[in-house]
Amino acid sequence: MIKFFEILNEKLYSNKKNSIATTLIVVVVLFFMFSCSKAKVEQIGAIKNRSAMPQLHATEITTIISDSGVTRYRISASRWDIFDRAEKPYWNFPDGIHFEKFDINLKVDANIHSRYARFDVNDKRWELRGKVRATNLQGELFETEQLFWSQRERRIYSDSVIKITQVSHIITGLGFESDESMTRYTIRKPQGIFPVDKSAGAATPTVAIPASTTVPTIVVVPARQPIPAPVPVANTKK
Does the residue 208 lie in any domain? Predict the structure, then answer.
């Protein structure tokens, strides 16, 4: 009888050891599976982050953009990325852009060139940065480092330094606002008006307005003239 209990006790102890070993193996396997599963989930999540990936990536493009069935713009760019899943969908032109704006008769009434551009789809607003150059119907050249164009409000504006080269004068100032054709514009803080010395090929500063001087806002409404040649699309790199 004593021998029987000794054998039974030995078997129970052996089964207990096997049970503990089995439990340890199961825990290790589950931990390994959980770690692999977590790494896989993180990897898949990164791939499916559509907000950081463009729906469309195009290079060396020229395209026509219409609004309400009417042709409005012609765009040329070295690179065009469309981020449609971003919190605020936008188009990105990291290598610059050149576009021409058409009037209702499909004639070019303004063209703009910059080294970087972004278009916010919901706000219908362009942001242009870096050596921004625009030409209107009168052949006037507008130069600044940053320009905004709100299609919804039908206006173009800037808070940066602006330089406007006319046929007979060069006007400089801080802050600028215009209609979409850039034929009626306002300089918020004029700083200087310089007659153009055509014989010397440069402007002669015979009239200058110090920045600290309070002056009235300049509003210019030029007369209509023939359409100028568009600004070349060359050198769009940032």
Answer: yes
Q: Is residue 232 part of a domain?
A: no
- Examine the domain organization and report whether 134 and 169 are in the same domain: yes
Mean pLDDT of 101-125: 89
Rounded Cα gap, residues 104 and 82, in angstroms? 27
Amino acid letter for position 132: V
pTM of the model: 0.63
Average pLDDT value over all residues in the chain: 74
Interval 148-192: pLDDT, tens:
999 899 999 999 999 999 988 899 999 999 998 888 999 999 998
Please calculate the CA angle 172-136-236 and round it to the nearest 5 degrees. Answer: 85
User: Quick one: 77 and 167 in the same domain?
Assistant: yes
Nearest to 112 by CA among 128, 94, 123: 128
For residue 86, give both structure tokens: 């971003």
- Are the CB atoms for 130 and 116 separated by under 8 Å? yes
With cut-offs at 50, 70 and 90, classify the pLDDT of residue 229: very low
10 Å CB burial of residue 15 (0-12, 13-18, 19+) is exposed
CA torsion sign for 190, 108, 138, 78 is positive
How many structural domains are present in the chain?
2
Query: Could you tell me if 75 and 63 are in contact, meaning their C-beta atoms sit under 8 angstroms apart?
Result: yes
For residues 187 and 142, membership in a common domain is answered with: yes
For residues 80 and 115, membership in a common domain is answered with yes
Both 110 and 177 in one domain: the answer is: yes
